[in-house]
Amino acid sequence: xxxxxxxxxxxxxxxxxxxxxxxxxxxxxxxxxxxxxxxxxxxxxxxxxxxxxxxxxxxxxxxxxxxxxxxxxxxxxxxxxxxxxxxxxxxxxxxxxxxxxxxxxxxxxxxxxxxxxxxxxxxxxxxxxxxxxxxxxxxxxxxxxxxxxxx
Length: 151
Fold this sequence. Notes:
Flavocytochrome C3, Chain A, domain 2; 18% helix; 2 domains
């Protein structure tokens, strides 16, 4: 009980601090996004969908162990507990026919190191790690430099 009360007090204090710094409310009292781009109390049209590049060359990796980036649009790809659209092209069975890269053998390993006969459940939801690239402007500044050994 004491821990719960302590956690609640910490949340209240953090919220008060953020409000005092102007991060949560605007001068007019409305809720505003952290990027200060729009008042959340006012309905605005949805942003246009980003233009993903058409199927093309693979992207270079920028750091060690970076999951490969998706070089094509994945809008409307179904990935749930019963279906994984990515495996239609990238499974060992279909990759050569579809001229797509095969999924890594590491995706067949369970947590305990056993090799499974199908994609491991912890690697089944591809979009947790593999992301498509779009022509989107960065939301924040970035001074990241790729690992030189990979160039």
